[in-house]
Structures are given as C-alpha cells and as structure tokens.
Amino acid sequence: DYYFDKNEDMSRYCPICDIHSNYFNSFGYITREDALCPTCGSLERHRLSWLIIKDKIKNKDITKNNLLHIAPEKIFMEKFTNLFKENYLTADLYDKNAKIKMDITNIEYPEESFDYIYCSHVLEHIQDDKKAMRELNRVLKKDGWAILLVPIMTKGPTEEDHLINTPAERMKHYGHPDHVRNYGCDYKERLEESGWKVEVIYAEDFLTTKEIELMGITKAAGEIYFCTKKR
User: Fold this and answer.
1) CA-to-CA distance for 186 and 190, rounded, in angstroms?
2) Rounded Cα gap, residues 152 and 93, in angstroms
3) Which whole number is the average pLDDT over 187-213?
C-alpha cells in the first residue's frame, strides 16, 4: 500500500525516488502528458517495472545474485547498485558510461551467467531482434528471470521493413528516428519462439485505480513482459 495521506495536497507519487509532487511532466517525440517524474526523471514504464522488480525480489536473499542491465537508465543505476553491489553489470554497445561494451546479438559470456536481466526499449532498435532474444535467453540462469520491454505500437502484428532505413523514414513510419520496427500483438510470440516462457503483467493486475493514477502509470506504461527460460 502507498501513503495517500502523506501529502494530501500533492497528486503524484514516484515509487522510485519516493517523492510526492504536484504533477508529472510531459515527455516524448510525440508528446504525452503526465509522464516524467520531475525529481528523478522516471517514466511510466520505469515506475511499473520498479514495483514488479521489488515484488519479485521481496524477502529473497539476493546477496550472491547478479543483474545484467542493458542500455542502463540512470534512474535505475543507483537503485540496482544498492541492491546488487559489485554483482551489478551495466552493458551497452555505445554508451561509454556502461561498465562493458556489449552487442546483445553476440554476448561474450557463457551460458547461464546471470540471475536477472533488465532490458527496456532496446530490441526495437536492433535489426535481428530474435537473435538478441535468443542470446539473452542463453546467458540467463535456469532459475533466473528477465524483464524485456518494448513499446507495443500496433494492435496488429509487428510492422517492419528493412528498406525503411533513414532517420526521417523511421520517424515517419515508426515514430522514432532510431526504431527499426513497430512491435505489435505478436511480441509475446516472438519471445516464446526464442526460448522464453512469458508472463504478461498489467498494472491493473496488482494496483488499484487510485494507485495507478497517483503514480502516473498510464496506458503508456504498457505491460511488463516477465520472462523465464522454458523448462
């Protein structure tokens, strides 16, 4: 439960930075309201992800567990460092602030290297996303889990055309200059075809309407794809 009476005059609460505020800021190439925490910069999907991560590790000894964080968001780096200490690894192909350089279509780690993986809004940038999905599956431990998030942009099947290859064309077709596809309702199937067992978690599954409004977890948060290895 969350403190609704902690600051009755404030209408928003961020569970990541634990701060109440009067509003969340607008954000996005295509602007959406009530999205960005003015204190820590979290977005809707970050707040929803954090609540689920906290729940999944609650009452568990994670002192010897490790986390691989792909394309690390600054808002999570301090949180994950506090949780996993030296067992927290950040990785990115281009970001020099990440601990290691990593191409997730060719991960240079042996099978079952990581207990947990967090990869949010990365796969829509990668041409061979299914290879990346298989690689992430390969390096996850048998009893581990991964949160693999993408923006679901269409109610139909995933839209991709590799001939759409300039920033202007991608912006026109996919709503972002670096995206190479619009994921659709078949994203779960794409994960499953790559060796994953997928649980789709919605905010409404465990939060009240009042909690969702308070934390600004609007429809833009999407759903959480909580993934484990097929047995």
Assistant:
1) 6
2) 23
3) 96
